């Protein structure tokens, strides 16, 4: 078992209290981010034995500081939950690298590869980065 944290709106938390568990809800995903989310779900399908095809619930390996910006819009009522779950139920990802996928970007391994990609000469495709 491992400890993780998840930030949820009060609405999501109330829904979890009614159902008895949290669910990933596609209604809260901006339309332009649906394709990257489906890509992440494909990665989960490939790598997680216990994955059941549902939308992800984002968890953190370190306790997030909700006083910092970027978690929720100002005035949003939210909770931070500490959860215990088997680590094999979690697909760990890099927050910054995920934003490359989210924003349809190329993630170079080196500065040289970045320059080659900009010139159209990279050996790797964007989808492989």
UniProtKB/TrEMBL annotation:
A Pfam family in this protein? Answer: DUF3841
The superkingdom listed in its UniProt entry is: Bacteria
Protein name (database record): DUF3841 domain-containing protein
* UniProt-listed InterPro entries: DUF3841 (IPR024211)
